[in-house]
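Email to the structure team, subject: M3 family oligoendopeptidase model.

Hi all, the expression group asked for a predicted structure before they design truncation constructs. Nothing fancy, just the tokens so they can compare against earlier work. One-line instruction: predict M3 family oligoendopeptidase, return tokens.
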Amino acid sequence: MKTFKELVYERPDFEQEKDALKRYAEDIKNASSYEELRNVFLDREEASRHFDTMFNVAYIRNSIDTRDEFYDAEMTNFYKRQGSLTLLEQEAEAALLKSPYLEDLKREFGELLVQEIEIGQKLASPEVVDDMALDSALCQEYNRVISACSTEFDGKACNFSGLLKHMQSVNRKERQEAFRAWADMYEGVSGELDRIYDQMVEVRSRIAGKLGFDSFISFVYARMGRFDYTPEDVKNFRRQVKEYIVPLCQRLFEEQAERLGVEELQWYDEQLTDPDGNAVPAGGREEMLGWGREMYQELAPEAGEFFDFMLEHELFDLETRLGKQPGGYCAFLKEEKAPFIFSNFNGTSADVDVLTHEAGHAFEAYTSSRIYPLSAMVWSSSEINEIHSMSMEFFTYPWMEKFFGDKAERYRMRHLAQALEAVPYMVCVDELQHRVFEEGLNAEGRRRVWRELEQTYMPWRSYDGNVFLENGGFWMQKLHIFVNPFYYVDYALAQMGAFEFYKKMTKNKEQAWADYYKLCKSGGSRGYFETLAYAGLSNPFRDGTLKEIADFLETKLFS
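Reply from the structure team: attached below.
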């Protein structure tokens, strides 16, 4: 494989792709034996990888610089044609479901694959092609708007990521000014974001209705493969978060206010956990990649092999820049069996979190793609995928001295506390989305409900009198609400599994890693509950699971 920068992008021939899908459907119908069907199925799998890889190359390069007109146009081109290609793929899969050799396929590749194909029959139709293209275009517009935001701070142009380091300063005035600059940027584009989201809610509801779903909620649960649980189960999970997790977080923030010597903790204080300053990495990109290599080589042979592959092929884009999409993600280039890590380094401990969190995703994809012949089996469900990433953050704890020196323990304690403190926010985001589609909330209603939910799940939250945020504007800063609807609760569910792996680590590190590696090798071969049981993890919806986790964390955080 070449390095990522050397990979040649070429726009797929969309008409050729349509013809290939039509032939695929016919070949399925004409297969006269399972062996023949299997060959047709695997040949199509191989052929589709190039198309998907070109999509991801364009997506990554568009994320790296949203101002690049060429890749912006390429993504627009993909989104316009996505719906018609989905329909042709759906027709081929319908033929597969009618094949007399379906049971043979199920025996070889698993029931979950067939279940996902069956659900896929309900998720698209000619009536929603234009709506699907519009939804994708709105996501692209959202990314453009957010990526274009910048402000001058301390004599330098900063985007949202660039302000985060200032928002962790030991100087409270600097934190406060950075916070105001951050909030002002969001308020400045709030009208555009409200307009975009109003259109998203409208088009997503329309898609669900045309496809026969009673709401977008039931549609998106089906699209995300949530076969094992319902919105009512998620509601019960949120209840347990409020009962067992919120009180622990309240105690943590009360202790933090006392340490910082402030009478009332403001939002811009939440990010500073120590009056002497948060632990920050001692080096830049090159040093941290070098330390990362040492860390993964020492962690396990399979982890070292993976990270060497990432370095050799330069599968990272890490530094924040103007025009770059905010946040971080792990993409996957199917043709190369290569993960790609995208992030925005900003000089805080979050830079190290990228080399653990996103690397957890990448390690799982690298591992499972070398086991399973089907791309659909590389990734698991999103609730499991986030266990891969969040658990890796804990497995790398013993190597934090490489990055933070004598402040490593300060980092570990802050990381553990913030992992817990993030959970109420995650379910807050989830409940907002449920209520948006249940109640048809407009812009004013979203702000009102968000503020109510903050006071329920984050009663410590105060915005120092900032009118925009005190009136509920903070919801806008969560990318997932716009581009990955209903995904965010998966982080909270997965965090429970990661906490359990951390608990296992404290007892037997070798066995904990063996169980984790077993989970990664499982890929997407099993359903959600089955995968949890396979890896020896608890069901987070079960009454009592969150209490057991909270009791364990209490001993670690308050001893």
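Residues 4-121 form one domain. The radius of gyration is 23 Å. Ping us if the truncation boundaries need rechecking.
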